[in-house]
Amino acid sequence: MVDAMIDRDGYRPNVAIVLTNQKNQVFWGKRVKEHAWQFPQGGIKPGESPEEAMFRELQEETGLHPQHVRILGRTRDWLHYNVPTHWVKREWRGTYRGQKQIWFLLRLVGRDCDISLRASGHPEFDAWRWHHYWVPLESVIDFKRDVYRLGLEQLSGFLDVPARVVGLSPYGRRRRPSRMPRVIAAAMPAVVTVVDSEA
Question: What H or E segment, with its residue span, contains residue 127?
């Protein structure tokens, strides 16, 4: 965590980016060499405003520049999540609790081909796709699920997207309880997870 700032409560300031297309689908990126998908995100460096950090992270992770997007909205306040201790680097344990994020909602006004995952020398993603607005809630790692729900719910007011219905998956299907034996279900790895890239 180079140039990381941690507040007195143990949270690192961070931005999260929800990039949408004209169909209100969201950009979903696969982390390099992992079976983990997430929104673009990254820490705020000393001296940066949240908006400056957002544009820097957007360019580093997607290759997009300010002229390729339009800001539709942002969360008003910080959204916090705690990172489980086993995800935190040893040297940060005891001082680092997690992230506090400002979420930005962007509209892509450029073209899909403007997206370049190799824009920086250290790519975060090696694949990407467009997804239904609420789908990330199904696949985000557990400890981030509440902050994803809060972020997407707050930002949905800036878009014409169907309301999320509790009890329905983002695909519109009624959720069913798992019928697999508990031991087998616990042993099977999740197909899609999102890990904390900043811890």
Answer: strand 125-131
Taking the C-alpha atoms of residue 75 and residue 25, their distance in angstroms, rounded to an integer, is 19
Identity (one letter) of the amino acid at 103?
Answer: W
Say if residues 16 and 136 touch (Cβ distance below 8 Å): no
- Name the 3-class secondary structure at 123: coil
Contact between 57 and 39 (Cβ < 8 Å): no
- Degrees to nearest 5, angle at CA 105 with 112 and 63: 40
The tokens of 33 are what? 């060499």
Measured over all CA atoms, what is the biggest interatomic distance in the chain, rounded to whole angstroms?
A: 52
Distance CA 18, CA 20 (A): 6
- CA atoms in the 13 A half-sphere facing the CB of 118: 1
d(CA 114, CA 59): 11
* pLDDT bracket for residue 26 (50, 70, 90): very high
pTM of the model: 0.80
Kindly indicate the confidence band of residue 58, based on its pLDDT and cuts at 50, 70 and 90. very high
> pLDDT band at residue 139, thresholds of 50, 70 and 90?
confident
170 touches 57 (CB < 8 A): no
* Domains with residue ranges and CATH for the chain: 11-187 (3.90.79.10)
